[in-house]
Amino acid sequence: MSGPTLLEFPCDFPLKIMGANDAGFAQTIAAVVVKHAPDFDTASMEMRPSKAGNYLSLTCTVRAVSQQQLDSLYRELTAHPMVKVVL
Fold first, then answer.
1. Which of helix, strand or coil describes residue 16?
2. What is d(CA 43, CA 49) in angstroms, rounded to the nearest whole number?
3. pTM for this structure?
4. Domain count of the fold of the chain
5. CA pair distance 19, 63, nearest whole angstrom
6. 35 and 74 in contact (C-beta within 8 Å)?
7. Tell me, what CATH number does 52's domain have?
8. Is residue 3 domain-resident?
């Protein structure tokens, strides 16, 4: 996925992560994000349940320092069994 990018680093980059509204989902995802973006403030994570409450949407805005960092974070999130979609 490496190549030219339209992003200028460092930059604030929002990620929207959706998964089942299970106990521990937000904490698990926060731990994955912090692993790739150690300065991520977990208190800044926005959480929105779906209308029926079955799913939870998390918005995590990270301070991205490279395309490689974003690619690694995206790969780990999309491979996680609790995650349905990453935007």
1. strand
2. 17
3. 0.91
4. 1
5. 23
6. no
7. 3.30.70.260
8. no
Residue 3 has what pLDDT? 57
Let me know if 25 is exposed, middle or buried by CB neighbors in 10 A (0-12, 13-18, 19+): buried
Q: Report the distance separating Cα 16 and Cα 75, nearest Å.
A: 14
Buried b / exposed e along 40-79 (16+ C-beta atoms within 10 A): beeeebeeeeeeeeebbbbebbbebeeeebbeebbeebee
Name the residue range of residue 40's domain. Answer: 11-86
Q: Indicate whether 15 pLDDT > 60.
A: yes
Quickly tell me which residue has 């959706």 as its tokens: 18
Task: Kindly state whether residue 42 falls inside one of the protein's structural domains.
Answer: yes
Q: Is residue 44 part of a domain?
A: yes
Question: Over the stretch 32-66, which tens digit does the pLDDT of each residue have?
Answer: 999 999 999 999 999 999 999 999 999 999 999 99
Residue 55 domain-assigned? Answer: yes
